[in-house]
Specification:
With 253 residues, the chain is α+β, with helices and mostly antiparallel strands. The protein has helices spanning 60-68, 72-85, 87-106, 112-115, 117-125, 130-153, 161-179, 185-193, 199-209, 213-221, 223-238, 246-252; strands at 6-23, 29-46. The protein folds into three domains: 7-46, no CATH class; 71-105, no CATH class; 108-252. The protein has a two-stranded antiparallel ribbon. The relative contact order is 0.08.
Length: 253
């Protein structure tokens, strides 16, 4: 850190340098002093040097505890602020970002773990009592909604073509399972909860919006995805559902 700048006070002092004789218009004369002003620089009081508060000795456990206690938004903002002041932080973040991007572009996510859970949901909440199934329908609906969200969250803009098409197929399977589920009280009530639910369509549109132009062109060229969405839409409309799947079909056309 450079030393603090000193305040300077300037004192202008007149100094006589010569005396000369001047003849006036009336023939008289007089002596005239020639003077000039000399600047005298007087050092003023120096400002005290700013000293940042001393940091405690490095203790990883302390910092882990402090960071863990922050919410995600605060941590991201702190990292963003750090990038403005530190080139090494910029380089480290870009390196991690590119590593994640390359990993996502290379892998194809298997969504069978989510689709396999669908039958387990029916088995878990089915009951011989209609009133019990009526109560369980709320929990079953919540778990189907969690499956939709989990599939969506697995896909990012950098995901591979295989991951995106597999996610679209998994969402169609979840939708089909809800529409064609058990005919008893549990299935009927779950379908009622999804009657005007647009989460499946929103998840599909999110995936398609993150696709590159090349990926989207390949998805459109393969009519399988479009056929699956149309089939789900027709099945839902048979129950009077409006899942907003037309918005997905419009993107795929």
């Amino acid at each position: 850190m450079p030393p603090p700048r000193k305040r300077v006070y300037i004192n202008y002092q007149a100094t006589t340098v010569a005396i000369r004789t001047v003849v006036l218009a009336n023939g008289k004369w007089r002596n005239v002093e020639q003077t000039r002003y000399q600047e005298q620089y007087v050092p003023g009081p120096a400002h005290p040097r700013f000293q940042a508060p001393a940091l405690p000795p490095w203790d990883e456990a302390v910092w882990r505890t402090a960071i863990t206690g922050l919410d995600d938004a605060t941590v991201r903002q702190l990292l963003l602020d750090a990038t403005r002041a530190s080139v090494p932080v910029q380089q480290a973040i870009l390196m991690k970002h590119n590593q994640k991007k390359q990993t996502e572009q290379a892998r194809v996510v298997d969504f069978s773990q989510y689709t396999n859970e669908m039958e387990d949901i029916w088995d878990k909440y089915s009951s011989n009592s209609g009133s019990k199934e009526y109560e369980n329908a709320f929990r079953a609906t919540g778990e189907f909604a969690d499956l939709i969200r989990n599939v969506r969250d697995e896909v990012s803009a950098h995901s591979s073509f295989g991951t995106k098409t597999a996610a679209l197929a998994a969402l169609c399977e979840i939708g089909d399972e809800v529409v064609d589920g058990p005919s008893g009280c549990l299935g009927s009530e779950v379908r009622k909860h999804f009657q005007y639910d647009t989460r499946i369509a929103e998840a599909m549109c999110h995936i398609l919006a993150g696709a590159t132009d090349t990926q989207l062109a390949r998805i459109k060229a393969d009519s399988k995805v479009l056929e699956e969405v149309r089939s789900l839409k027709a099945g839902a409309e048979g129950y009077g559902f409006d899942l907003d799947l037309q918005s997905v079909i419009d993107v795929l056309m």
